[in-house]
Amino acid sequence: MTEFGAFLLPAVPLLALLLALLLGRYPGCEAIVRLSERIAADGRPGQAASGRRRPTHRPPSFARRGGLLLALSLSGRAPPAAV
Predict the structure, then answer these.
(1) What average pLDDT values come out for the chain (83 residues) when binned by 10 residues?
(2) CA separation for the pair 49, 14 (Å, rounded)
């Protein structure tokens, strides 16, 4: 019985989520709606109480990221020597 319990214990959250979805409940849906309303309210002009203005765009970033970082790290290496 302990082996079955050890197998079933990690599956309990997955089964609970599956049961909630089958019953038509979507966990986190209300939180997503509240967050999207808050973001939309922050973006409206004329709502800010202070006279401080936010920058409309971010300054360009020259940091190497992702695939470019990988390509630049591999570009300086020579091919292996032929034996």
Answers:
(1) 80 90 86 87 60 67 70 72 77
(2) 45
Overall domain count for the chain: 1
Q: Is residue 55 part of a domain?
A: no
Residue 21 falls inside a structural domain = yes
DSSP for the chain, written as a single string: -HHHHHHHGGGHHHHHHHHHHHTT--TTHHHHHHHHHHHHHHTSTT--SSS----SSPPP-----HHHHHHHHHHTPPPPPP-
- d(CA 11, CA 20) in angstroms, rounded, equals 14
Given this model, what pLDDT does residue 75 score?
Answer: 75
Contact, 38 vs 45, CB < 8 A?
no
Quick one: tokens of 75?
Answer: 């570009």
Note the pLDDT of residue 52. Answer: 61
Range of the domain at 39: 14-44
